[in-house]
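Worked Example 4.2. Consider the chain below.
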Amino acid sequence: MRRKFLAVLMITGFLAFLPLAGCKQKAGSNANSGPAGAAAPEASVAIPTLDGSTTSLDQYKGKVVLVNFWATWCDPCKTEIPWLIEFNHKYGPKGLVILGVAMDDEGKKVVEPWVNAKRFDVKGQQEAIDYPILLGTDKIADKFGGVLGLPTSVLYSRDGRKIKTKIGLIDFDDMSKTLDSQL
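Applying the procedure from the previous section yields the following structure tokens:
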């Protein structure tokens, strides 16, 4: 009886931790995109937007850029979205740009309707995603050093240098402090 109880307790603990760990990405991907403070070789990578154009980090020189790799099916990613909207409201006027890179295999046909339909609780208000959503692929993720899991966030300084990479759910307070120091 005691063994059965311990087994149930261990499984319950594992399942409770799972949402905090992030969503698994494809095998073979890695997240070694260089050390913090390094110049961003990925700055010129063209990433498709939902409207059919492309963008790149080069277009945001002079801004602090937070690139967030996510997917519509990733629960921790959905947990972060209201925080990213809040960061965009607070820090966007000070020079922050958030780029959400959707890594759904089905691309635009899944991502665009999901983004258009979803609303998130941001300080008691229902808000739509109000930062650019881009369409990622494994090739694009590899240009950023690969993505081990989702969500993965990469923060760049105003001069295009990588400040930090976070695999898994961001820490709201830690990211707020980092953004305060950069903006």
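DSSP finds five helices and eleven strands in the chain. The two ends are 57 Å apart (CA to CA). Compare this with Example 4.1 before moving on.
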